[in-house]
Every structure is written in structure tokens, then in C-alpha cells.
Specification:
By secondary structure, this protein is α+β, with helices and mostly antiparallel strands. It folds into two domains: 107 residues, 2-Layer Sandwich (Alpha-Beta Plaits); 102 residues, Alpha-Beta Plaits, CATH 3.30.70. Helices cover 22% and strands 37% of the residues. It is built from five helices and ten strands. The relative contact order is 0.19. The model has no long low-confidence stretch (mean pLDDT 94).
């Protein structure tokens, strides 16, 4: 750990509808600008182009909203969670909302290395019968394998989706369709995305929206 990284505050925040189409890089820049404007005593990286020391738990895909994003901010000087919350209240851009702030040990492992699963609510605009949708969900969960292909850096790679779907259910029904809840694997053993699950359910062409609701360690 760098000698300047004496303190570490963990911010849980929401990314709301108005900014769901910004990239992860733009999100990081928005946080950097807000923290600087708030006068937070940030710790900086070494080298010719020092950067504020921040670490996000997991990049959120463009187009998703979230009520469970987490970023660790490393500080040179002590700052209470309440003080940081007050400072951020007037400088955060619209669409970013602080949910909680807590102090954590500076030497803890990197956030990204700790995430093992991610939970989502997925709304699908589908006019089929609920019994049909629940049957598709049951068939997916009963499958031993779900061979799929994913394009990565211009190359097609085969993978098995089934081990990455830890839990899946139809959570609610509304006038415009249904809401699914899913917990998907994340990390070195593999990562799944909600649209891949929808594809496996035969709903690849159905309009949908995604909210990330939890990161599990």
C-alpha cells in the first residue's frame, strides 16, 4: 500500500435512468470531478500522470441502471463518512445518488477481486402467458449445460452459461410484461449478463431493461 493511502471510504451509490447510457470511463470521470470539487483529500497514483486512487467493484454495462454500485476512495487525510456525504450532496451530477458511505481498512483486498455474483431485476415487454415463461425458467434451471458462444475481440468463444446462472425466477407481472430476478456468477470463473439469460429463454428479441440490485462477495 502506498504511504499516502492512509484512509479508505466505501461509497455505495445509485446510477439512475438519466445517465444509464454513459460509459464506465465517463462514470469514473464524473466521480473524479465531483470528489475534486468537494475538496476531498484524495490519494494519488505515482508517475508522470498521477490519478486519484479509486476502485470500482464492477463495471456496469451501458444501458443498465443500478441501486448497488460501489466505489472505494483512498484518502491522504481522515474524513468521516458523514462529512463526505455532506460535501458530495452539492456537487454530484444528476443521476448519481449516494446511498451509504462507510470507512473500511485500507489494506483490504481490491473490491473487484471480492465480487462473486451479481443480482439483477430485468423487465421484459413480453405478451406471452406467465405459465409459459415460468416453464422456460424451469427448463433453463433443470438443464445440465447451456452451451453458448460469445464474441470477444473479434473471435467467437464457446462457454457454458448454466453454471453462471445461480438463481432465476419470475418476480412480478405487470401491464407491459414481466419482471425477472436473477443472480449471475461474476469473476475469474466466468461472468454472465442478463441478455445472455434472456437469449437462453428465447427472449432475445424482446425489449427489456436492467437494474443491478446487489453485488455479492
Amino acid at each position: 500500500m502506498n504511504q499516502t493511502e492512509r484512509y479508505r471510504l466505501r461509497i455505495t451509490f445509485a446510477r439512475e435512468e438519466t445517465i444509464k447510457y454513459i460509459s464506465h470511463l465517463d462514470l469514473a470521470r464524473a466521480w473524479e470531478r465531483a470528489l475534486r470539487r468537494a475538496g476531498v483529500p484524495l490519494a494519488y497514483s505515482q508517475g508522470f500522470n498521477p490519478r486519484p486512487k479509486m476502485a470500482f467493484a464492477a463495471a456496469l454495462p451501458v444501458g443498465y441502471t443500478s441501486s448497488a454500485e460501489v466505489v472505494d476512495v483512498f484518502l491522504e487525510k481522515s474524513l468521516s463518512p458523514l462529512d463526505l456525504a455532506h460535501r458530495l450532496a452539492s456537487v454530484l451530477p444528476s443521476g448519481l445518488r449516494v446511498i451509504s458511505i462507510e470507512e473500511v481498512e485500507p489494506g483490504l483486498p481490491a473490491l473487484q477481486s471480492q465480487v462473486r455474483a451479481v443480482e439483477y431485476r430485468v423487465s421484459v415487454m413480453w405478451e406471452g402467458e406467465r405459465a409459459d415463461l415460468e416453464a422456460r425458467v424451469a427448463a433453463l434451471l433443470a438443464a445440465t449445460t447451456l452451451p453458448r458462444e460469445r464474441v470477444h475481440k473479434g473471435r467467437r468463444r464457446a462457454y457454458d452459461l448454466r453454471p453462471l446462472v445461480e438463481a432465476l425466477r419470475v418476480e412480478a407481472e405487470g401491464a407491459d410484461g414481466y419482471r425477472l430476478w436473477m443472480r449471475l456468477g461474476y469473476g475469474s470463473e466466468g461472468t454472465a449478463r442478463p441478455e445472455e439469460v434472456l437469449d437462453a429463454l428465447g427472449l432475445a428479441d424482446v425489449p427489456f431493461s436492467v437494474e443491478r440490485t446487489a453485488l455479492r462477495v
